[in-house]
Amino acid sequence: MALESTGRHRYRKVKANVMVGLTVVALVLALIPLGAVLYLIASKGLAALSWDFLTTLPQAPMAGEGGGGVRNAIVGTVWVVVIASGFSIPIGVLAGIYLNEFGDNRLGQAVRFTTEVLSGLPSIIAGVVVYSIVVVAMGDVTAFAGGVALSLLAIPWITVATQDALDLVPQANRDASLALGVSRTETILFVVLPSAFGGVITGTMLAVARVAGETAPLIWTVGFSKFAFHGPFSQTATLSILIYNYATSPYEAWHQVAWGAAVLLVGLILVTNVVARTLWALRRRKMEGRG
Predict the structure, then answer these.
(1) DSSP codes of every residue in 37-61
(2) Domain extents for the chain?
(3) For residue 278, which of 210, 212, 213, 205 has the smallest C-alpha distance?
């Protein structure tokens, strides 16, 4: 019996080591494409970064001269993302709260179905829909329309993230609050939601970072402008559209600008992801009493 037990133990240990090895190999294979993309963008785009690149407007490609900067694209991107956040965050968070706390009914089923459909919606379809409704009504492409298009893509991600974060809050917290005579609404607002705040913020930031790099819906709703930003209800430039236009142009100067803009956009997404996960880690440590 002892020999049989020892044999089983060795077999399980070998099996565990093999599975760990396969997991490490899969991780490396998954990181190779990411590393290749980051290396290519950094090697070609970092040289374009400078203070002038960040603070000047795009220029026509002249012989022996550069293609200018991306100030208007940076400002336009920020505005479009802010508008998208203004629409998607309140709707997504409220929808997530409803689904987790009150969603065991037909309306909840309808909201879940809508969320699932929107989460798989091709981004260009969001652009076409907003174009036919907002752009046609306003008579021109605008940063506002672009923000609305991106919000359609962000809402389902924020909804799911909020629902998952709230679902992690122990039911005992709700029961204890209700037992003290606190209403269900106050329990959600002052007990459940604060406990899940870190997860909600993380999911929200990740959703916003994801849609910030979208290009297809902005082609239909924002357009492109080489001039300075003139407000949310005017046509503007964004980093993603600038990259698309300049990368497909025949001018080498504009190609360099496109690589520099790609560095900025990828850097924005990476920083947002890192900050979101750091905030969640700090919040989690605090909740566990280790911070």
Answers:
(1) HHHHHHHHHGGG--HHHHHS-B---
(2) 2-48, 71-287
(3) 205
Tokens of 195: 């406990």
C-alpha distances in angstroms, 108 versus 135, 169, 213?
31, 20, 31
d(CA 43, CA 181): 61
**At which residue do the structure tokens 């409704």 appear?**
133
The answer to whether 224 and 242 have CB atoms below 8 angstroms apart is yes
The secondary structure of the chain in percent helix, strand, coil, rounded to multiples of 5, reads 80, 0, 20
CATH topology assigned to domain 71-287: MetI-like fold (1.10.3720)
pLDDT tens sequence for the chain (291 residues): 555 566 677 778 888 888 988 999 999 998 998 888 889 898 888 888 888 888 888 887 765 566 788 999 999 999 999 999 999 999 999 999 999 988 888 888 888 888 888 888 888 999 999 999 999 999 999 999 999 999 999 999 999 999 988 888 888 888 888 888 888 888 888 888 888 887 888 888 888 888 888 888 999 999 888 888 888 899 999 999 999 999 888 888 888 999 999 999 998 888 888 887 787 777 666 655 555
Alpha carbon of 41 to those of 149, 212, 245: distances in Å?
27, 18, 17
In 3-state terms, what secondary structure has residue 72? helix
